């Protein structure tokens, strides 16, 4: 009997009861704006910032309206001006080059390896073109951060980490987001904690965070922040930094605080599902799994594999056959952007020279969401279906050659 998967790839778990109760309390108070506090009351947003900073070991944290806003704020606070070049991954999602464009910067794309991380040799060759690298830990894959930081530090290039897919992840003992000048996170629905939209910006630099807080639209209420630099840090910055409003409200903060406390447990659940898929797809003919280095402690809310050097027609056949059995796979190799699967040659506002080695990798990238509403048995079934359909198409192509 042919197995058909009936789960939803977009269905997340419900908000925890504690978060719902906290959100109700905020709504009943009417004090949704983060600075609308009375007396000694502490805003949910300020408490969330304090708790997130403690979670990742950062001095300072700012809760904002989205991960994209976190990146644009980090770029502005780092001094990126109109026309400045900014290095970034060729394999990422559209909000990353979008953040660079939003501040008037010009993306310079760096290649991707078969391990789905930034090509450090290509980065080394391009470091003289910019003073900032907006590094995307795309789909939760972390490169050799020790080598990357050594390269960037030697070249005087500041690193801003896009950690939308790596909240809770670690490289060689250091949390994702703590390596560079800034770390940027997302709390959009498909990320590791869910407020629909939202994000965080972390750093250890007092002036950097003071600029970010002013940029976020604190008016002159920066004293109401807790995971923030001393008030005197704002003495000059408050007069010269524009207000580009992008604050997180107390409602979203209330929803997020219980989820943040449960992040490590949720990460273990995601990784258990990932390992079931990985085991089920091991040694599938024509399919390349992505190796996970020993130094990388990842949080796998999605799953990727490569159909490397397959023809577009063969990939389309796999996608169609899996879809017919209820398995939604996304492909980064399509000639046109579809959903979130755009790539560097899709972003025509940021023209780039062709990168044949990266094009070869991108043409084979298959992506699948991995929500926690899937059970371990669900993941085993997904692996069986993908393995069967990839094998059938691969063997058919081999036989036809």
Question: How many discrete domains?
Answer: 2
Mean pLDDT: 96
Report the uncertain regions: none
Percent range of helical residues: 25-40%
Q: Based on DSSP secondary structure assignment, what is the total number of beta strands?
A: 14
Strand content: 5-15%
Q: What is the name of the CATH architecture of the largest domain? A: 3-Layer(aba) Sandwich
Report on this model:
The chain has helices at residues 17-29, 44-56, 67-77, 95-102, 120-126, 145-155, 206-215, 234-240, 250-261, 263-281, 312-324, 356-362, 376-400; strands spanning 60-64, 85-89, 106-110, 132-136, 158-162, 170-171, 174-175, 182-186, 199-203, 288-289, 296-297, 302-306, 330-331, 365-369. The model has no long low-confidence stretch (mean pLDDT 96). The longest helix is centred in the last third of the chain and has 25 residues, at 376-400. With 401 residues, it is of the alpha/beta class.
């Amino acid at each position: 009997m042919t197995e058909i998967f009936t789960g939803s790839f977009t269905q997340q778990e419900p908000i925890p009861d504690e978060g719902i109760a906290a959100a109700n309390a905020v709504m009943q108070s009417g004090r949704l704006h983060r600075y609308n506090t009375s007396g000694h009351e502490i805003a949910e947003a300020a408490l969330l910032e304090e708790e997130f900073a403690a979670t990742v070991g950062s001095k300072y944290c700012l809760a904002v309206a989205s991960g994209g806003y976190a990146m644009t704020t980090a770029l502005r606070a780092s001094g990126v001006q109109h026309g400045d070049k900014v290095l970034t991954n060729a394999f990422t999602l559209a909000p990353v080059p979008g953040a660079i464009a939003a501040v008037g910067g010009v993306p310079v794309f760096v290649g991707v390896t078969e391990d789905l991380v930034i090509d450090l040799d290509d980065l080394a060759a391009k470091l003289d073109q910019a003073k900032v690298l907006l590094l995307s830990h795309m789909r939760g894959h972390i490169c050799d951060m020790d080598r990357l930081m050594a390269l960037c530090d030697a070249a005087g290039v500041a690193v801003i980490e896009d950690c939308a897919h790596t909240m809770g992840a670690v490289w060689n003992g250091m949390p994702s987001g703590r390596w560079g000048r800034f770390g940027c996170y997302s709390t959009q629905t498909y990320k590791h904690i869910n407020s629909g939209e939202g994000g965080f910006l972390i750093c250890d630099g007092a002036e950097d965070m003071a600029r970010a807080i002013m940029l976020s639209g604190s008016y002159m209420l920066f004293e109401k922040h807790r995971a923030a630099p001393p008030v005197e840090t704002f003495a000059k910055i408050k007069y010269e930094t524009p207000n580009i409003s992008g604050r997180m409200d107390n409602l979203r903060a209330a929803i997020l605080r219980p989820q943040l406390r449960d992040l490590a447990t949720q990460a273990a659940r995601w990784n258990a599902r990932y390992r079931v898929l990985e085991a089920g797809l091991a040694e599938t003919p024509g399919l390349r799994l992505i190796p996970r280095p020993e130094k990388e402690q990842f949080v796998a809310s999605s799953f990727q594999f490569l159909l490397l050097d397959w023809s577009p027609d063969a990939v389309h056949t796999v996608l169609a056959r899996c879809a017919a059995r209820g398995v939604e796979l996304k492909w980064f190799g399509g000639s046109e952007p579809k959903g979130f699967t755009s790539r560097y040659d899709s972003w025509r506002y940021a023209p780039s020279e062709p990168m044949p080695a990266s094009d070869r990798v991108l043409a084979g990238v298959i992506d699948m969401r991995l929500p926690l509403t899937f059970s371990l048995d669900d993941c085993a079934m997904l692996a069986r279906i993908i393995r069967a359909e990839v094998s059938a198409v691969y063997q058919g192509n081999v036989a036809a050659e």
